[in-house]
Amino acid sequence: MDLIQMTRELGVAIQESDVYTGYRVAKDAADSDPRLQDLIGRFNLKKLDLSEAVQNDEKDRDRIAELNQTVRDIYNEIMSSPLMMACNTTREELDRTLQFMQQIIVYSANGQDPMTIEEDPGCAGGDCSGCSGCGGH
Fold first, then answer.
1. Whole-number Å distance between alpha carbons of 55 and 75
2. Are 128 and 136 within 8 A, CB to CB?
3. 26-59 burial, b if ≥16 CB within 10 A, otherwise e?
4. Residue 137 banded pLDDT, cuts 50, 70, 90
């Protein structure tokens, strides 16, 4: 039994899964939306402007506040886009699946029966504070 080959096959299975496909469809839709990409471009440019204003020896507090608000406004507009929300939701679902898969592998390597391992609720939301040690973060 070649573990590396089995891992490669697992990689293929991940890419063929519904959770991965859902993420790719959502990401591709977000990446190909001109309005959303324009917002992301504007956000990045304003972040650069803000960074330069903050690093300037002669700080213009009003300009910094204005740029900071503009960056926040654009960010909120990006994050409230249905395409970006779908991309983030499907990415979180994929991440949860991958974290659980990693949990199964780590627990199995520690001697537990892989068929009886249940998802650690501390890992389900990405919050490791209640985690019993999946090693994910």
1. 21
2. yes
3. bbeebeebeebeebbeebeebbebbeebeeeeee
4. very low
Looking at per-residue pLDDT, the higher value among 132 and 39 belongs to: 39
Residue reference for tokens 């001697």: 111
CA distances from 109 to 17, 64, 94, 112, 134 (A): 24, 52, 23, 7, 11
Task: Judge contact between 23 and 93, C-beta under 8 A.
Answer: yes
What token pair was written down for 38? Answer: 């324009």
Is the distance from CB of 122 to CB of 133 less than 8 angstroms? Answer: no
pTM: 0.77
pLDDT tens for each residue of 30-44: 999 999 999 999 999
